[in-house]
Amino acid sequence: MARIGYARVSTIEQDLEIQVVKLKSEGCEIIRSEKISGASREGRTELHTIIEFLREGDELVITRLDRLGRDTRDVLNIVYECEQRGAFVTILDPHVSTRGEMGHVILTVLGMVAQMERRFIKERQREGIARAKAEGVYKGGKVRLDHSLIRRLHAQGLTPSAIARTARCSRMQVYRILNSPEPHAGEFREA
Fold first, then answer.
1. Could you tell me the domains of the chain?
2. pTM above 0.70, yes or no
3. pLDDT tens digits, 86-129
4. Residue 97, beta-bridge partner list
5. What is the pLDDT of residues 4-57, one digit of tens each?
6. Interatomic CA distance for residues 184 and 129, integer angstroms
7. Which of 8, 32, 124, 167 makes a 20 to 30 Å CA pair with 49?
8. Which of 93, 84, 44 is nearest to 65 (CA)?
9. Which family does this protein fall into (predicted)?
10. How far apart are CA 103 and CA 157, in angstroms?
11. Distance (Å, rounded) from C-alpha 2 to C-alpha 54?
12. Angle at 53 between CA 50 and CA 58, to 5 degrees
């Protein structure tokens, strides 16, 4: 029986250290982490690896439910997949576990709250952008990745891992850009 920790933050600029320290202090022998949005499961390779690794009696430990996901259906599907492998999920804050029946009810409610919170964040963001546009100060979203750089590095024969390190992004973003239609020359696009 292993305690496997999972830490996640949404952006490259955010720090995983607080989550990792908490998971270690809870006795997690293995901790996998990633910097990617929790809006969906797409591209969350570390989470997928953990779920594939889980065995009977293992425990997936996360610091807060929103680290697992911000969509109720995704969270419940992850919990279901863990249980299909004979494992269970434990959230540290607030302390909830799927070992007992009440844990499932609480997880469902917390999942709904996380999803609602994400909607509120998006709504506040839209309101802020609208206000900035009305005041004439909105400059648009920050360009995050230079697609042409990634394509150039790929053409030079660099591996997706090497490209990701150079461009300071995830391998999944590199794959998405390489598999997407090529933009107009010199155009920057968000990944």
1. 3-112 (3.40.50.1390), 142-191 (1.10.10)
2. no
3. 999 999 998 889 887 787 788 778 778 777 887 888 899 899 88
4. 90
5. 999 999 888 889 999 999 999 999 999 999 998 888 888 899 999 999 999 999
6. 27
7. 167
8. 93
9. Belongs to the site-specific recombinase resolvase family.
10. 49
11. 8
12. 90
SS3 146: coil
Element (H, E) at 91: strand 88-91
Range 151-160 contact pairs with CB under 8 angstroms and sequence separation of 24 or more: 151/177, 151/178, 151/182, 154/178
Catalytic residues: 10
Q: Cα separations (Å) of 128 from 29, 37, 132, 144, 175?
A: 43, 21, 6, 20, 32
Is the CB of residue 5 less than 8 Å from the CB of residue 61? Answer: yes
Q: In the structure encoding, which two tokens stand for residue 54, read together?
A: 């889980």
Q: Return d(Cα 169, Cα 97) in angstroms, integer.
A: 33
